[in-house]
Amino acid sequence: MEIAKNKAKVQEYRKRAAELVAKMTLEEKVEQTLSWAPAIERLGIKAYNWWNEALHGVARAGVATVFPQSIGLAATFDEDFIEEVADAISTEGRAKFNMQQQYGDTDIYKGLTFWSPNVNIFRDPRWGRGHETFGEDPYLTSRLGVRFVQGLQGHDETYLKAAACAKHFAVHSGPEDIRHSFNAVASKQDMAETYLPAFKACVQEAGVEAVMGAYNRTNGAPCCGNKELLQDTLREKWGFEGHVVSDCWAIKDFHEGHKVTDTPVESVAMAMNNGCDLNCGNLFHYLKQAVEEGLVKESRLDEALVNLFTTRMKLGVFDEKGQNPFDEIPYSVVDSKPMQELNLKAAEKCVVLLKNEGGLLPLDKKAYKTVGVIGPNANNRRALVGNYEGTASRYITVLEGLQDYLGDDVRVVTSEGCHLCHTKSQNLGMEDDRISEVKGVCDESDIIIAVMGLDSGLEGEEGDEGNEFASGDKPNLELPGLQQHVLETIYASGKPMVLVLLSGSALAVNWADEHVPAILQGWYPGAQGGKAIAEILFGEKNPEGKLPVTFYRSTDELPAFTDYSMKNRTYRYMQSEALYPFGYGLSYTDFTYSDVKASAEKVGADGVDITATVTNSGKTAGTETVQVYVKVCREGTPNAQLKGIRKVALAAGESKTVTLHLPKEALGVFDENGELQVNGEVKVYVGGQAPDTRSAKLTGKTVTELTLSIA
Predict the structure, then answer these.
(1) Domains in the chain, please, with CATH?
(2) What is the CA radius of gyration of the chain?
(3) What is the average pLDDT across 629-658?
(4) Does the annotation mark 247 as catalytic?
(5) Distance from CA of residue 711 to its chain's centroid?
(6) How many helices (H) and strands (E) would you count in the chain?
(7) Interacting residues of 296 by C-beta distance below 8 A, sequence separation 6+
(8) Which residues on neighbouring strands pair with residue 165, listed in sequence order?
(9) What is the model's pTM?
(10) Which of 31, 247, 416, 557 is catalytic?
(11) 278 Cα distance to chain centroid
(12) H or E stretch including 20?
């Protein structure tokens, strides 16, 4: 029985924590509620900094494996693999912690409490932080979030390998520039159907150790002091027993931005009284005054501290060295060859093939003497990693990956083509100062690989250094700067071309979809990304990624960015036809489905099993993503929603039969009161894509439809 479910062991830790807290003075207690908790030498308590990051690798503390950004990992649609990656991250996290402790290093980003994963819903493609998430779908986000948490925290019955944190609770997805004062208004239906399921799954299924509040208000109350969220929902309805941490400096927003309190003392009282245990920031210094003035009971402060010290005890940091199996993880595992191999596998699995007209891909190395590589992301390391990243010992850009792969056999010529978002590459140059080089490279080349998109300097968190756009949010879905112009110039050369997009979000590449024969979406594919993309372009690996977000044709299709209603948002509610739909992605081989059936036409309390035989009917090995969608046959219900996924690796000509279980609640939808309604008739769709007309048009395939009724 793992520690997250080992109630007896947790109660033992809580008892020890309470005994420790009882020995502290009020001043000592208050200091322990800050994320940089100082040592209390007389009680044998070491200094501990709670703030650490592990979104896609151990971040901000030196060398670590830099995996693909979360949105790329989401494109794998692979629960088992997500846990494998998270387990590797926590292995490196423990290894680095063990080394740092050996030398007395307790600085920020040196602890075992990782503020990951981000399970917010990527409801609008303009949101700059969307690439930190697992995409737009609550089911996919829930499944991957649960397995990421389990990978980080491990399965030991006595200790946590690391402590995960589900963030940002709740209803947070932009705009970034007003997050410190913004009130996100969401209906009970949208809360239950969209914004809360992933958090609930992380709490109830994975036993996530921590939950972080968001900066914004939700339905009027700031999230880090929101009684309905932190007490009524998280603690009472869901049974959460870990600790709650504020987002960084979010509590000062109560009086400075949201204006719901007048003073810092009132703000810390509101946060603490409504369930926030730990302050990332320094405002909880005012807790001493709040307790002395009777605004916060010392018993509530004690409760917060018991929550916090219980986490530290679960991590084993109060026990003798050697009792904890994770103390033995050596520093040598960090950035080791097995980690690099896993990272390469991750990068390969996340790439999505969006278009492959005439079977241009995979390319034949022997067919070309000179390959041109053009674009501002061709040799851009920042476009490999996204944000909240660590430091890789080596980065392989797309240009470097192609150079390494092609070696001396094929000449590679290159041009950045243009700046990522500005109109010139050199400050003293004229506008479009690389276009002659673009034309020259095209003249020299037999085929062009165009590498375009974004990087974390364009999309990211508000206030991140270098954000060129609206506090990290995208103003639109276009390729920025002169990239479209360069793309059209390459096309005009008449040379065969492939477009590789590196971005953390959807781009409206409508022109490219009409004119460019082959398009790959590489996301921010991690430090090994260039090697993976080169191998996929030349057929060493078969792309298997699926889109975890919708690619829209224009922002004109979207509601206002500040509108948190789900109407007309994401594949589940949109009425227009996507450019590239959620769940879509091509392969170099072909998959067919047969013998698709349900275990019952009338579904009872135990749910229903969906069985299908999947055959690789092509000529190369590949991995299919079986997707099951459910549409409730009542007016006003969402479009068909993803409710089941399974990865199936198949050799050419091979068949496998897979069974996916749908619990009864997967066949229901939430009403306007946020109550689940499971009744009537449902359509269940089974295949390698969503059951929409655009997916059918792009793939030339349809999915199998089953009609079931609820008993």
Answers:
(1) 3-333 (3.20.20.300), 351-549 (3.40.50.1700), 591-710 (2.60.40.10)
(2) 26
(3) 97
(4) yes
(5) 37
(6) 21, 24
(7) 268, 269, 272, 273, 287, 290
(8) 210
(9) 0.98
(10) 247
(11) 24
(12) helix 7-21
